[in-house]
Model the fold of this input.
Amino acid sequence: MQCPLCGHPKSHKHGKTSKDSQRYRCSHCQQTFGETFDTLSYRRQISPPTLQIILQAHAEGSSLRGLSRITGVAYNTCVSVVRSASHKAQMIHNQDVQAVATNVINADELWSFVKKSKSTVNRKNGV
Ligand SMILES: [Zn+2]
Done:
């Protein structure tokens, strides 16, 4: 198993946690970690299928309270899972998508902000 902390390719089994899941120890950085380290189920009492249901239903547009009711997972946990997944996805995106050379941009939505000058605001308020 590769060390998630330093990237060393070899780590060894290092006993079990109190929850009876396998612990590993990196021979390079001497750190220990479990199987779920750096995953969405790390330090959460949610099974991977439930995680998948939460994320899939969220992507389909279900409300977070609805997800909480359907899966039986606390609302705050649903929010936390969605935020963590979003953060991870953003990290992967930022790592892989860099300096994209483009000639044509195809935008399906464009937002703009037009600033109101102070003189316009003052004129409307009668100042
Ligand atoms: Zn390591």
